[in-house]
Amino acid sequence: MLDHPRMRTLFLDFDGVTHSTGSAPGYSLPFEWVPVLNELLCSAPDVQIVIHSSWAEHYSLDELRTFLEPLGDRVVGVVGRGRRSDAISEFLRANPGVDRWLVLDDAPGEFTEEMLNSVVVCNPSRGLSDPAVQCQIRRWLAGTLAGGATVVG
Question: CATH topology for 7-142?
Answer without folding.
Answer: Rossmann fold (3.40.50)
